[in-house]
Amino acid sequence: MPGFRLLLAPLALAAILISAAQAMAGTGFRQFELADPSGSRALQVSLWYPSEDGGTESSLGENRAFYGVPVIKNAAATQRTLPLVVLSHGYGGSWRNLSWLADVLSRSGYIVAAPDHPGTTTLNKDPKEAARLWERPRDLSRVIDALIRDNALAGKVEPSRIASIGHSLGGWTVTALTGGRFSTERFARECKLHPNPRICRLNSLRADEFPPASVLNDDMRDMRVRAMVSLDLGLARGFTPESLAALPVPALIIGAGTDIGDLPARLESGYLAEHLPASGARYVEIPDAMHFSFMQRCKPEGAALLEADEPGDGIVCKDGGTRGRDAIHQEVAALILGFFAKAIPTQ
Length: 347
What we know:
Largest sheet: 10 strands, mixed
Number of domains: 1
Mean pLDDT: 89
CATH topology: Rossmann fold
Shape: globular
Radius of gyration: 19 Å
């Protein structure tokens, strides 16, 4: 797609950026529950933030299948005012999925916050909550509200330097958060043209049956969010071309070049790249990345363990090509750090 393709960062540059981030002060980590005034949608929120505490690190998010990341739990936050990045996980995921990226960002000087979206998370797949897809962007706005209001959570946030990152359904979430307008009618037409079960029928979500008058068509933009990153998003073709063409913030769109079978980047990330303004959007397609390559690193036995627990889940640990997931992560992190250095710098 002319005007949108960005050359991949060399691994040497990625290694320098990641090494520099890891050499900085430690990553503090804490979790809190964000109450909902209506009482119906409390959020479990995870926070990573730069810390000069010097406490003992422990592994976060590690289990039999996945590696964790080193953090200092409940560490004191730095006294500096810092940019904020909010993360949105995919359908059936959780805060753990992008914890590797949260760690890199925190060590680079960013406060990072990730809510678990009720109804579409690992431990909560309630179909009624899942169908309220419009709540996902609102979840991120509520988290931003809380962190600006309370400096004791993760440090002081600079309100003019806030960005969002989302993977899969999270990519849809951050696109809506920054000005993309969804049309249920348009999406229904697209699902007739491209009846992709992974996109059009997300288990209980039944995305191809959204009513035409759905609140999903409302404007969900949060004007405080000044940049967005989408990692191999889904449901992209429901966004109107007009709203994407007018997206008011810079965007970095990263697609997985190796299709997992029914989620081709050209129909999702490529759709955003086609319609976003050329002056403010960059599109990268990583040839050997698969849809789940953006998630946390798997242990050598991870794929077999996941497959044994749930047949078909072993794909979560698979990547395309010959590189390992760590190398793909380094490229993704380097691209994002370079993008944020201009969009929401730490200094």
